Amino acid sequence: MTVRKKITLPVLRNRKKNNKKISWLTAYDFSTSRFADEAGIDMILVGDSGGMTMMGKSSTISVTMEDMIMFCTSVVKGSSHCFIVGDLPYMSYQVSDEDAVRNAGKLMSIGCDAVKLEGGIEMSSRITAITNAGIPVVSHLGLTPQSLSQMGGYKVQGKSLASFKKLLDDITAVENAGAVFHLLECVPEEVTGELYKHVKNPLYGIGSGRHVDGQLVISHDMLGLFVGDVDPKFVKKYADLSSIIKKAFINYKDDIDKNLFPEDKHLYSIEGDDLKKIQDYSNQFNK
Ligand code: KIV
User: What is the pTM of this model?
Assistant: First the structure.
């Protein structure tokens, strides 16, 4: 029997060297984290997308450090093998290097293995500051949801030469600043392939095609659990849990309406003459 080891940065680098792709899923709670771990998933992102998937927010902008601390604490408890990346939420790192290091430290002290932040060249000093504090930083480029307003919505990135040049400058800058690996969101596959030629560290993708070292998928999307307006083309649906859950709730309500639940097998019983004593006492009560 092979003993399964915890995924670490050297393991991820080795996978890239050996051309072996990694599987990466989001999780925000204990049970999903446990299921991912037991399924042999390599990495978990505790994404600020939890604001949308778990809290019903329309974007990630109002997700706080407190929200992320709660999500990260639950996920860390659920997994002992996955490499866990904690997402730095909006305005937890944009203002200063000090904020960035302090907040990254909070996620690491919970038990995350790395932190992720969005942005390119302009985030170089943040990435270096966090790295110098001994914390691995993951860069997130392409479609960066914390800049949704600036981007004008969920749009495919890197579709012009100017946009490609910017992505190339950004990925080079964040790699030089110390980013241990990169996540590229919503970029055409051919453009990803061109960027891939210029990075040394692992490059993972979400909606960015196959020329990458592994894929990230939002668990709610692949499980058919997301309740909201965003329905990206790049998601493959592996289950339709919303229908399964709704059907179970409808069946339960039906049982209640028809007095079919609970049944005998769901009841606790009472031993000896204790029942008689209780009934006698109850009958005397308030007489
Ligand atoms: O928060 C998240 O899940 C993310 C993905 C959208 C890449 O950052």
Answer: 0.96
